[in-house]
Design a protein that fits this description.
318 residues, alpha/beta, Rossmann fold, 8-stranded mixed beta sheet, two-stranded antiparallel ribbon, 11 helices, 12 strands, globular, SDR_fam
Length: 318
């Protein structure tokens, strides 16, 4: 099957069913109404060994699990409380997952959770968007890496990025926007999405000897709760909404359904045809070119790895 703009996650997962069956998959940010949920639900339909739903709110995870069970009642699921905005809580979640002796390996980790263009907030570990979208995922991934390695060649890590990477490179000397004085919500989002892409490049390089792949993806423009912090007037001004506040296709954007938005993640996680393109960025279910060259710079990728180690206070061999 050829995949493209209008392919849904369920269609992609059905086509890739033999590559999903029997595998252990973890998805961050799987709340109802978002692409993380649709990613997890579509995977659950194809008889994986277990789907781990990881997110900040246990009650929201329970809601997602309940809905998934309606479609895939026989697929085992597990819930993992994971607050990506706090490194100490990330460590707790990783320890809990690592102590799950009945889940000795992790075939696919999908780093989907994100915040977007929110008001400035400093967490205990830095600016909220960078902390949540990149740093928390970096630390969690590294702390559970031995389970990914245990899954052997062909296991994958998928970072959900965005064309929003075009808004900013990494602000190497000022990640936190002068503690908010120079804060721009879109630049902060762009910085975090560039980080998602560079991290995938580093992972691909470091895991190549083990046959493990990493990818970043742009899901497309989807009208979900992710955009809750963006004023309606701003969306109208950007050409995303009409004057009544309804999503509208324009020169600025062609909207996707949630199913269409989750499909590129499925392809990145399971399609064997891209196995030799580890480190690549995907959009519309295909290998794509980043909008800015800094988002594919291997030197920048290594620099981000070192910076991330410094910020989490721990070094990693892989």
């Amino acid at each position: 099957m050829e995949f493209g703009f209008h392919t849904t996650a369920e269609e992609a997962a059905t086509a890739l069913s033999s590559h999903i069956r029997g595998r252990t998959v973890l998805v961050t940010g799987p709340s109802l109404g978002g692409i993380g949920f649709e990613t997890a639900r579509s995977i659950a339909l194809q008889n994986p060994k277990v789907v781990i739903l990881a997110g900040r709110s246990i009650s929201k995870l329970e809601d997602a699990e309940r809905e998934i069970k309606k479609s895939a009642p026989n697929t085992p699921t597990r819930l993992l409380e994971l607050d990506l905005s706090s490194l100490s809580k990330v460590r707790q979640a990783a320890e809990e997952f690592n102590n799950c002796t009945d889940i000795p390996k992790l075939d696919v980790l999908i780093a989907n959770a994100a915040v977007m263009a929110c008001p400035f907030k400093m967490t205990e570990d830095g600016e909220l968007q960078f902390a949540t979208n990149h740093l928390g995922h970096f630390l969690f991934t590294q702390l559970v890496m031995h389970k990914i390695i245990a899954a052997g060649p062909g296991s994958r890590i998928v970072n959900v990025s965005s064309t929003g990477h075009r808004f900013s490179d990494i602000r190497w000397d000022d990640i936190n926007f002068e503690n908010g004085k120079a804060y721009d919500p879109w630049m902060a989002y762009g910085q975090s999405k560039t980080a998602n892409m560079l991290y995938a490049i580093s992972l691909a390089e470091k895991l190549k000897p083990k046959g493990i792949q990493a990818f970043s993806v742009h899901p497309g423009g989807i009208n979900t709760n992710l955009g809750r912090h963006i004023p309606r007037d701003t969306m109208i001004e950007m050409g995303y909404y009409d004057k009544d506040g309804n999503p509208v296709n324009s020169a600025a954007i062609t909207w996707k359904s949630i199913g269409e938005g989750a499909s590129t993640t499925i392809v990145a996680a399971f399609d064997p045809r891209i196995a030799d393109r580890s480190g690549a960025y995907l959009a519309d279910c295909k290998i794509a070119e980043p909008l800015n060259p800094y988002a594919k710079d291997p030197v920048g990728a290594e620099r981000l790895w070192k910076l991330s180690e410094k910020l989490v206070g721990q070094e990693f061999d892989v």
